[in-house]
């Protein structure tokens, strides 16, 4: 019973003390506002908001920080605005209010930029990226996290870099970019090891310092003992001189007594006793000298050991520094390459038609686009022509990765330019594209053989007809459950053909519900399956026939699933592109 009473009294006292502090803070705030000491008033608002957050009073905490922010804005206190918006963002982030948190962190980011506060800029971008990820907006999450990582690398903040790598890996994994996720996960592991190594080095330096201090202490102790022993040795030498003097006296007495030839037993005993004392003194003196020599040996051994440990530590430290420098250079080069490729990816993504544009021109459609590397040599293109016809193409450029991406940019820009000259027939579009690629790459002069394979459809809704031309790539369409394939011409776009390329135009009448599929060779050439063989065109057509009645997004998912199952643990052979659309007349 007494314990319960004591507990309640203690709680009452703590509550009373807290109430007194709050009352004092409110009084200080009123005084600051009255005296127009606005920086102090803002600090008091932030302090009260922090105290409310610690008590779990989230709503009151947000209100207090917002009051401080408004007062800072009215009086243009940029430093306090940066801190206030950041703190408010943390409260909203921890309360799962991610939309509000993003706005608060972005406000704080603007003030951090104006104050050139690099670390705060990185932390704001980090929390913006984390908030977007938790909202499921992975692409925006990646953009913000990459900005945070660039700043963290610039200011060499390893902890920030580590957290950026971790969240970038999660974001890319959520988007299905397993290769990028693994890259960032590896970077996370590498920097984590660097931190551990630096910690180990710091620990080793502390141990070496401790050993040095201990050896110095032991050396001082030995020097003190040596001085004591030397003092004792001097005393023993003094005793030895005294004994020698006594011995000489005894010898004189002995000679005198011999002369007298009458020595009593008592006198003889005294002489023997003095002789024994002298021998004992000699023995003690030799023992002290041996002990002194031994201590000198121990001291010299300890000094040699200290030097050896120091040299060994210096060698280890130099080796570690060299290794760290090489690791940092490799890491920097890797990040530079990755940054350049990521920038190329953003350019290529901007070049590709948006999903909204594709769905606006072809509402019943899908695009399965899976680059083998970060950037792709395949690309898809769609445009509305001057006479309201719709042109759509699936293009496979020479190579993949960065070289293929350069070709894809040339092809996309050339297609946009050609259709702006009022060319609307697919065979003429391919012919003009072939001519432009020859000229752009100066292939007749240089012998360059790069080019592209493509399938191009032009849809005329007024006449209910679809026109197709292909450069090595084909068109599959399904009408009333029957599968048809129109093969493209055998020559590609570009290359070193001296005779100008001519392409065949095929006309298909549109009736009822019809399904069309254009594709690059990445899907059919993928190795996998039980015998590690190519997927092949026959199996692809069978798969298309099996799924063509499903909704377009489900068709895309089935194709993606079939490719992943067939590929298994093999690497992706080439860029993969499949375009499917449904036309109803």
TrEMBL record:
One Pfam family this sequence matches: ANAPC5
InterPro entries: Apc5_dom, Bact_Sigma-Reg, PPM-type-like_dom_sf, PPM-type_phosphatase-like_dom, TPR-like_helical_dom_sf, TPR_rpt
Coiled-coil positions: 201-300
Keywords: Coiled coil, Hydrolase, Signal, TPR repeat
Domain PPM-type phosphatase, chain residue ranges per copy: 364-583
TPR repeat locations: 42-75, 82-115
Xref: SMART domains: PP2C_SIG (SM00331), TPR (SM00028)
GO molecular function, one term: phosphatase activity
Signal peptide (residue range): 1-23
Name of the protein: SpoIIE family protein phosphatase
